[in-house]
Amino acid sequence: MANTKYSKVAAMMFFPVLALMGQSHFAVYYGIVPTVILYLIVRYKISIKYIKYIFLGVFFSFLTYLPYLISEIQNGFLNTNKMFMLSSTAERNVFPFPQVHFLFTFPTNEFSVMYDAKHLNRIMAFYLNDNPYYIFSLIVLVLSIIVVFGAFIYSIIYFIKNKKWKIYNNTNNTEMVINELFILFLLYFPATIFTTIFGGGVAGLARYQFGGFALSFIPIIYLLYYLTVKNNYRVLNYIAVFSILSAIAMNFNIMVYYQKFHEPYRWTDYIDAVYSIIKDSNGMNFSVDNASSYFNDMGKAYSKNDGWKNVDSNYSITYYLDVPEFGIKYPPIYDRNALLSKKYTKEEIEDMKFKNSVKQ
Q: How confident is the model at residue 267 (pLDDT cuts 50, 70, 90)?
């Protein structure tokens, strides 16, 4: 059985850890947080035993949020209102929704960028568009999918067949922890689906399920543990060979990602673009024709002496950011030396010849 002293500490740290995760992204309150609450309800006999430590943890978690709450009060609950606005206007006609299937893709070699339920094509685009290692990477990707789903099928069958949800006095600590984590993994799906649908959740990218990232590896850990217990070293050797191939493939994926997605969209480029616009506009009102709200926020954050004068109307200069549609807006920027009386289209801008273009 578990060490009582450590059990008290674990019970007390449940919610403070979740609170810190929530400060990274609010989506955890639609996933791992309701999962833990549901788990405590399922294991109510143990929860009651450590209830005072759980409540103490809730108090500590509130303290971690206190600076944020003070800031929200001082700013008229700006972030809270934005979240409510996003919830009321978000698109939900995607499948699957919510996207709990990410818990089956996290442990695989799936490495596409900006993949979500509406853009399944981006998975193959990552491997087939200018990827010199795509044959090897795709083979390992398929193998990783087989391993992940094989581990899940084995784990669920073994868990049910041997009634591993029951706690026995002779169960060693390692086995008990693995069994309890597998219960958390299983509870994540109904808890997240219910909370997201009835709590006004939104469809999002993979990061919306990052709260369950660690749980996604539990079926593999479960498989490896019981293969070790059964001394099934032949299968373990196969998995070891696959792990080496997977590591090599992931290094190739990282190289492709850096070359195609990271290097072209460096953060310093965004900042340089902001400084270039501020310098070129020289205090005049301007409009950045195709900039995102993120770029505008960056302009406000990095400008000095209120130099960022991006307005919706009555502007003297128009800038156009020459970037792909899916990229966050960054240079090169076309300079407007003359005062423009209208908003130019991209085609019109490309046909113009500007003498003093901003160079990065």
A: low
- Per the document, the length of the chain is 360
Cβ(286)–Cβ(316) under 8 Å? yes
Element (H, E) at 318: strand 317-321
3-class SS letters over 278-293: HHHHCCCCEEECCCCH
What are the tokens at 253? Answer: 């994926």
Token reading at 13: 């740290």
Q: Contact at 8 Å (CB) between 193 and 98?
A: yes
Q: How far is CA 89 from CA 79, 200, 318, 349, in A?
A: 15, 10, 29, 33
What is the value of pTM for the model shown? 0.72
**Hey, what are 172's tokens?**
């060693």
pLDDT for 258 beyond 90:
no
Q: What span, in angstroms and rounded, lies between the C-alpha atoms of 121 and 128? A: 11
DSSP 148-212: HHHHHHHHHHHHHHTTTTS--TT--HHHHHHHHHHHHHHHHHHHHHHHHHHTT-----GGGGGGG
- Residue 44 CA, chain-centre distance (Å), reads 31
Output the six-digit token pair for 288.
């950045």
First vs last Cα of the chain: how many Å apart? 63
Q: Is the pLDDT of residue 336 over 50?
A: no
Bridge partner list, 317: 286
